[in-house]
Each structure stands twice: as structure tokens, then as C-alpha cells.
Design a protein that fits this description.
The protein has 235 residues and is an alpha/beta fold. It is 35% helix and 20% strand. It contains eight helices and ten strands.
Amino acid sequence: MSNRDQQLWVKVCGIRDVQTADVAVNAGANALGLNFYHKSPRSITVEAAAEIVDSLPEHVTPVGLFVNQTPAQIEQIMETAGLSTLQLHGDETPEMLAVLSENHPNWKLIWARRVSDEEISDVEDDLRECESLGVKLFACLLDPKVDGAYGGTGETLSWNMVARHYDQSMNPPLILAGGLTPDNVADAVRAVRPWGVDVASGVEVERGIKDAELIREFLTNARESTQTPSSGPKP
């Protein structure tokens, strides 16, 4: 079964301890994001990440999140933490993805693109360049572009814009991110019909601190959104 054929894929990003990981797993998360960007309030040590990875059942994927780190730094962290899926969320280029892909053909690569409404068309060009370099992406994550920030801002993309301009029949599976919460994820999924969704700040009581009930509500509402028609506004 290809990754396009499964139910809605849900990733809870910014997990920092085994207890929170357990909550997300029991709520039905497909993946947990482990943030190695040291400037993020959700950053985690390699040792803590390895403990979380060891605690996960096989059906839940741990994802290492990196921002503007070198291939050598990424490789060391991935190996030490026991990871095989990574998300590049900085200013990485298709050429860097090609290096990682060539050196580690078994890794699954998620390329996060921070875009404004005006820049969504640039994503298509970059994805075509990845193809020309032989990079096969596991997925492409779209996140709002906010100056000075690399995700987790709580800002929301225009879902209608994404639905119009991201060709899901031709491009890698789409992960929608940016400002998703238990209250709006259902409308977001129905508007965009992405392959997956990603949440960080939307299930937090304060920056970097996840709330168990919000995680459960998010997973429930995200899953139910694929079964019921839209009834709310679309940003």
C-alpha cells in the first residue's frame, strides 16, 4: 500500500517527553515530530529523542525536524536517536536534499516549504527540481511564511489557495500545517483534502507545552473530518 492510500495521516510535532508521546500515540497519531532546532521552544536533546523513539510502537513514525543544519549534523543526530524519517524545515535546497537522498536512500524525506500566498507557485518549480535530481520525497509540508520564524507560529495558510495551486495528483503527498487546532482542523481537511496534517502550537497550553485533551480532540476532529461535509468558514 502506498502512502497515498491510507487514512488521513496525522503528525503531532514538538513532542518532548515519553508521557506526551504516549498521549499522542493512544489518541491515534501516525507520527511524532522531534524538533532539533535549538532556537525553538519545542527543541529536544538527542538523548530525550532516543528515549521517545525507543518507547514508540512500530506503527508510529518518529520524525526528526531540522532547520539549516548540515548533512553531517543531521546524519549524526538521526543515527544517535534511531531515526529514519526527517523533516527539513529551514532554507534547505533541492541540492541538499539530493545529497541526503543519495547518502541515505532508505530515509524518508519530508520537505517543509514556508510559503506566502504569492509564493505558492514556487513550490512547483522546486519540486520539479527535486525530481530532476532524483529526489523522491515522502511528502511535502506547506506552512505559512512568517519572517524570522521556522514553523510553529500559529499562523494559518489560505486553504482555498492551497487547494487551487497544489496539484496532489502530480506532486508528493501534501501535509497541511500552520495554525491548525481542534476547532479548525475539520474545515481545513475538508477544504484542502490533504494526505496529512501537522499540529504543534494548536495543541499547546503555552509555547512548547502540550495539552493531553487538546491532542485527543485534534485527532478525533481530524479523523471525523474525512467523513462529514463542511459546514464552516474557510480561511
